Amino acid sequence: MWDYTDKVMDHFLNPRNVGSVDNPDGVGEVGSLACGDALTLSFKLDASGRIADARFKTFGCASAVASSSVLTELIRGKTLDEARQVTNQDIARVLGGLPEQKMHCSVMGQEALEAAMADYYSKRKGGPSAEKKGNIVCTCFGVTDDEIRKVVRENGLSTVEQVTNYCKAGGGCGGCHGRILELITEVQGEAVQARAAAAPKRPAKLTNIQKIQLIQQTINEQIRPALRADGGDIELIDIDGNKVIVAFRGMCAQCKVSEFTMKDVVEARLREYVSEELTVEAEKNPDSSEHKS
Fold first, then answer.
1. I want to staple 78 with a disulfide (CB 3.0 to 4.6 A). Which of 4, 83, 128, 279 is the partner?
2. Can you name the residues that pair with 233 across neighbouring β-strands?
3. Summary count for the chain: helices (H), strands (E)
4. pTM beyond cutoff 0.85
5. Which of 144, 175, 198 is the last residue of a domain?
6. Spatial contact of 189 and 155, defined as CB atoms under 8 Å apart
7. Residues 82 and 101 grouped into a single domain
8. How far is CA 121 from CA 113, 115, 130, in A?
């Protein structure tokens, strides 16, 4: 049995805003009965352009019902621009979290909202189409490449299994796994380029004090977070000209690939952000005799 939170069970057993809005301004339908989950979301705007009523009909599991119920509560009273900011992560957060294998239910809610708003705008001149965009990648569940890119980008996904958990793509015959991996790599590449574009440019010339400060800043902001994510850390020991001496701490201290980390992560980042002339060395173990009384 799934480990659901009390909030999930409450919205499953006592769902809010079930049904259809009379004379809706927008209707979004996502999923299909053949795939196991389907959601229809409808909303009505008041005179000020805010969502006065939002209702849903869901065919699916407890997570699907709970996600749909929470979504209607989240968007009521909002303008369409404000409602557009609601993400699947917001839905999961209000529910106190969802099992990883059920995150696709929160994504389905977000997609239904987008489809309903697209339906609203399509009825107005020049509005976007409510039809799915992109090329179908997963024929088993009808998921497009645009949908996969979006879910990878917004949720920081890195494996095919995660993509399946979030949007079902790849959960059928498996024939699309290769294409899903290509899309993950594509999105990750875009993220790397975005970080590089946003990163401060390396100064043309540095004083010794500026160099020391920039080295420490780069370690704190560009290197240490990645190491701490894996249970490790790094300490700046000394700077001798263009030689930077560091010591690995935590899990990194016992890691067999620490030499690789030093050259391909630490030295590469310092050369990128500080100076191409920098080299990095590990702190040498002090002679035990120096510590004898």
1. 83
2. 249
3. 13, 8
4. no
5. 198
6. no
7. yes
8. 12, 10, 8
Torsion sign over Cα 60, 65, 68, 71: negative
Pure H helices in 23-87: 62-75, 80-83
Range of the domain at 186: 133-198
23 within a domain of the structure (yes/no) = yes
Q: 127 versus 213: which is more confidently predicted? A: 213
Confidence of residue 289 (pLDDT cuts 50, 70, 90): very low
Question: Of 91-100, 138-147, 153-162, where does the model show the most confidence?
Answer: 91-100
Residue 97 lies in a domain: yes
The CA–CA distances, whole Å, from 30 to 53, 69, 71, 98 equal 19, 15, 14, 20
How far is 3 from 9, CA to CA, in rounded Å?
10
Six-digit token string for 10: 């409450």
pLDDT of residue 36: 67
Token pair of 40 as six digits? 């229809």
Q: Which two tokens stand for residue 208?
A: 């010794």
Q: Using CA atoms, how far apart are residues 27 and 21, in angstroms rounded to an integer?
A: 9
At residue 50 the predicted structure's pLDDT band, cuts being 50, 70 and 90, is: very high
Specify whether the CB–CB gap between 54 and 43 falls below 8 A. Answer: yes
Q: Determine what percent of the chain falls in helix, strand and coil, rounding each to the nearest 5.
A: 50, 20, 30
**With contact defined as beta carbons under 8 Å apart, do 103 and 97 qualify?**
no
Helical H runs in 62-219? 62-75, 80-83, 88-94, 103-122, 145-155, 160-167, 177-198, 208-218
Structural domain total, the chain: 3
Confidence at residue 273, expressed as pLDDT on a 0 to 100 scale: 86
pLDDT band at residue 200 under the 50/70/90 scheme:
low
CA nearest neighbour of 137 among 173, 186, 185, 176: 176
**Co-location of 69 and 154 in the same domain:** no
